Amino acid sequence: MTSQDVIVVGLGAMGSAVAFHLASRGLRVLGVEQYSPAHERGSSHGRSRIIRLAYYESPEYVPLLLRAWELWEELEERSARKLLSRTGALMVGSSESELFRGSLRSATEHDLPHEVLDAQEIRRRFPSLDPPPDTLALYEERAGFIVPEEGVKAHLQLAGSLGAELRFEERLLSWEERDGGVLVETSRGSYGASHLVLAPGPWAPQLLGELGGSLYVERQVMVWFSASCDGLPVIMWEADDGRIFYCIPEGPERIKAALHHGGKRTTPETLDRRVQEEDVEAIKGYLRKYAPALAGALVESSVCMYTNSPDLHFVVGPHPRHPRIILACGFSGHGYKFCGVIGEVVADLVTEGRTGHPIKPFSPARLQPQA
User: Fold this and answer.
1) Which of 174, 226, 229, 315 has the most CB atoms less than 10 A away?
2) Are 128 and 232 in contact (CB under 8 A)?
3) Is the dihedral of CA 350, 352, 357, 363 positive or negative?
4) Residue 2 confidence class, pLDDT cut points 50, 70, 90
5) Which domain holds residue 264?
6) Do 337 and 195 reside in the same domain of the chain?
7) Residue 245: pLDDT over 90
8) Nearest residue to 204 (alpha-carbon basis) of 61, 4, 12
9) Triad 82, 84, 86: Cα angle to 5°
C-alpha cells in the first residue's frame, strides 16, 4: 500500500484543478480517474463553457468568479494553451425574469461594468436576435467561454509537472477513514493518505453514501448549428415560459445551443447518449422564436450530465462526519467556470483547515438526511 499526502478521486474539471493546486503547494498527490484524460463520459466536455461575472444565481458567487477569471488567465499563460475566448455575454429576458433581474443585482452590488439594453437596442447591435418588445438584456463585455477539455488537460499537465502521480483507467471501489488518515481501494490497489478529495462528478450520488441521496443527475443535450455568428456574444435567454436556453458562438459559422436544466433524470450507467430528433427540436424551437437566424443546419450533437444539489448550489467542504475527506461535487450545471478557484479552496482546506473564500452556502452538512 502506497501513502500520499492527498488522494484526489476524479480528474475531470474539479479534480484536475484540485490536483494542480495541491501539487503547487508541495504536497504529494495521487490522482485517480476511472477513464482516460479529458474523457467524454461525464460533464467536462463539449468544447465550450460560459464564463460570466454578473451572476444571476446569486451575488455571493461574484468574488469567487473574479478570482476564477484571474486563475484562468494565469493557467492559459502557464500552460501555453488557448483556454479563454472573450466574446462578451448577453443575459436576456423580460424585466421580471430571474435571469435579467439576478444578473443586474450581481452587477450592481459588485459594481461590475455592464450595460442594460432594451429590445430595440438588442436588435440594432445583434440583428440575428428577435426579442419581444418588453425584453431587456444585461450586456457584460468581460465574459465569454472556456474550452473545457483544454482546461482539464492544462491542469493535468501542470499537476504532473509538479510531481503529482496521475493514474487513469482506475476505478474507485471504496474509501474509509483509518488510523488518523484515509484508505482508498481501487480496481488496481490500495492507497493511504492524510486526506481524500472526492470530485466524482455525476458518480457522486453513488459514492457519497447517505450524503449522495439528495443529489441527482440530469441528462443534458448539446447541439451545434451552422449560422453566421460574427460579432455575436455568448447568449443566455429566459424565454416567456421560464426556460433558459443558451448559445455560444464557437466560430464565425458555428453556434452551440442547449437548454439549461429540464433534462431527464438519469445515472452515468443508464444515460441515453443518443441524440434524438425531439432533443434537437426542443432546442431549435427556442431559436426559431427568439433568434431565427441562428436556427441553421445541425452539424453536431452530444450529451453530458448535470449533477444537481437540492438547492442548485455547489457542495464544497469537509464531509460533516469525516473531516479528512473534502467534497467537491454537485455543481448543478454552472460549475465549470469555477474549477480553478475551487482547486484553490480545496487546497486551503487541506493545508490550513479553512479558506478565506466565501463557501459557507456550499457546506456539505446541508445534505445530511433529517432525523
Assistant:
1) 315
2) yes
3) positive
4) low
5) 87-141+216-308
6) yes
7) yes
8) 12
9) 130
Q: What is the dihedral of CA 179, 180, 185, 188, to 10 degrees?
A: -90
**Which DSSP symbol is given to 314?**
-
Q: Is the pTM of this model over 0.90?
A: yes
Give the cell for residue 193.
493518505
Asked if residue 6 and residue 97 are part of one domain, the reply reads no
The CATH number of the domain holding residue 22 is 3.50.50.60
Residue 355 pairs in a beta bridge with: none
If 0-12 CB within 10 Å is exposed, 13-18 middle and 19+ buried, where does residue 181 land?
middle
Per the structure, the count of domains in the chain is 2
Q: Which of 308, 339, 359 corresponds to the end of one domain? A: 308
Residue 370 has what pLDDT? Answer: 74
Q: In this structure, how many other beta carbons lie within 10 angstroms of the beta carbon of residue 269? A: 8
The Cα 286–Cα 234 span in angstroms is 16
Pair (242, 324) in one structural domain: no
Domain boundary among 308, 341, 356: 308
Distance CA 32, CA 355 (A): 25
